Amino acid sequence: MILFDRDHWQEILEALAKNKLRTLLTAFGVFWGIFLLVVLLGAGNGIQNGVLRQFGGVATNSFFVWGGSTSRPWAGLKAGRWVMFDNDDTAAIRREVPEVGILAPRASRGMPNVVRGTKLNTFRVLGDEPAIFGIESLRIVRGRFLNELDLAEARKVAVIGSRPREVLFEPGEDPLGEAIEIGGVSFKVIGVFESRQLGGSAEWQQQTIYVPLSTYQQAFNYRDRVGYYAATAAPGVSAAAAQEKVAALLRKRHRVAPDDRRAVGGYDIEEEFRKVQGLFTGIHALMWLVGLGTLAAGAIGVSNIMLIVVRERTPEIGIRRAVGAVPVWVMAQIVVEAVILTALAGLLGLAAGIGVVELVAALLPAAGTGGGCVTPKPDVSRPQSLACGAWPGGSAGPAVGCEASRNSRTSGCNSPPGTASQTSSTSRA
């Protein structure tokens, strides 16, 4: 058999070495095809993973619903009226909208002063239920997150991000069980978390302090109000459909025009996720087309070269047949030459492609990551997305949390997130 015949292998190697330039060009066609295919697929998958990681901190089937000001009169009520949600709305959604999977009402009082001893800074403080953990995926590095008992008993406990831990505590100091003062109210630290998001989103989220919603409402004179809702769709239900059901119910309960989307607005992360997935499906298809096209061009080149080789070696093949060579053996020799050439070139192309992809992957973290937001950053005048800050996006007018705490005995809604006050650290005399 030719595969185990030493003489035939020697003839194959001599034939490849006889025409070095032709062999090199043929091998390069295969090498380049494999190399380009690997690099294109690696780049496509890398970009896709990087973009999809922007959703890593928020459930991809989640949506948000918030209240704003009415845009026109309805049911005898004037335009410009603010829609404020409350605990009764929460109960109504859970009772009347089965399309909702997880429902997490939230309250926010902006950026209040947080004090521990002589250390003071401003951080984002959110009143939440434990259900929010199913929507915002946080990494608990110390202690635990809020639980149902914390909520039921309105315990004054807090889960702090990595930034408050750095500012309020000494390096190596265990924050668990320690007391911090938020807006003049003392809270016990029960957990520390890190964000699963990237870039600016992670930095913003890690400046957050979570407290039970019931505690928040009592401690900060928020009464029974809810700033906005974060939720996920039930299995088999689209986030858009669930969001519309919730928004319709809230418009009805607050006597708002059915089509007034400024009064009750919403944001659908699932829709954004689908758009990204659709985009990358097209990109992958294009990359496969280009890569396979290049590979096919290399294969055609190899085939043409083999035809030329056969034509050049016709006298040699004739002599072999005259001395008794079996046709199958003559054909096998030509095929094995092509297989050896393409296999070696393909392996080199594969190794080079993987090497380039791994090198780029190693260099990117060193260069740092930018952005990282699914949607724009929030500000006081325009609520934006929970994925990047305190507010989901879209409606005009003051942020709901600031509006709801307008009559509160505490402050913290007057400065927009993202200012220097977030990160500045001062000390009490």
Structure keywords:
single chain; about 425 residues; alpha+beta; 13-stranded mixed beta sheet; 15 strands; elongated
Characterise this structure:
The chain is of the alpha+beta class. It folds into two domains: 2-54 and 274-367, no CATH class; 62-269 and 392-427, no CATH class. It is built from twelve helices and 15 strands. The strands form two sheets. Strands 1, 3, 4, 5, 6, 7, 8, 9, 10, 11, 13, 14 and 15 form a 13-stranded mixed beta sheet that branches. A two-stranded antiparallel ribbon has the order 2-12. It is elongated, with a radius of gyration of 32 Å.
State which percent range the strand residues make up: 15-25%
Largest sheet: 13 strands, mixed
Shape field:
elongated
How many helices does DSSP assign?
12
Short description:
By secondary structure, the chain is an alpha+beta fold. Helix content is 46%, strand content 18%.
Fold blueprint:
Blueprint: H1 6-18, H2 20-52, E1 62-67, E2 85-86, H3 87-96, E3 100-108, E4 113-116, E5 119-122, E6 124-128, E7 138-143, H4 148-152, E8 157-161, H5 162-168, E9 179-182, E10 185-195, H6 199-205, E11 208-212, H7 213-219, E12 225-226, E13 228-233, H8 239-253, E14 264-268, H9 269-312, H10 314-322, H11 327-367, H12 400-404, E15 426-427
Parallel strand pairs: 6-11, 8-10
Antiparallel strand pairs: 1-13, 1-14, 2-12, 3-6, 3-13, 4-5, 4-9, 5-15, 7-10, 8-11, 9-10
